[in-house]
Amino acid sequence: MAVAIRLSRGGAKKRPYYRIVVADSRAARDGKYLEQIGTYNPMLPKDSGERVKLDEDRARHWLSVGATPSDRVHRFFDAAGILEREQRNNPKKGEPGEAAKERAEEKAAKVAEAEEAAKAAEEEAKTAAAAPAEEAPAEEAPAEDAAAADAPAEEAAADDAEAKAE
Questions:
Q1: In CA terms, which of 69, 98, 127, 139 is 20 to 30 Å from 15?
Q2: d(CA 87, CA 161)
Q3: pLDDT digits over 25-48, tens only?
Q4: For residues 74 and 150, which has the higher predicted lDDT (pLDDT)?
Q5: In the chain, which residue ranges form alpha helices assigned H by DSSP?
Q6: For residue 94, what pLDDT is reported?
């Protein structure tokens, strides 16, 4: 007969209370059990001493006989120092799903496009800043030409005024 140390649920709806029991592995979860070796009340705070109560001597006895604890009960035994539990490692658990990966790729593409646009704008600003400095003398030259062209006309007008005065 395969014997398991597991939780048997009791308590009201949405108010769970568990017994830590030794039962035939084929028996129903809340069905017949061989012995109750403790209790677990998940409604109490984690630091409370009343949360998990174990009869350590009986737990050691059933483990020596060959009973296999469920994962949750194994955690209780590890916390009590009865049975060492290996840490599990599931590297795929923290990996995002396909849809999340696609969203991340789209976001990265948008960020890359924004950076390229910013660089292009900077280069245009640099080019525009350098171009007016070169074009400024070219723009000033026509203004000087216009002033020079106005100067002979003013001289001619002044000469005409002097001629009439004489």
A1: 69
A2: 110
A3: 999 999 999 999 999 999 999 999
A4: 74
A5: 56-65, 71-80, 98-165
A6: 83
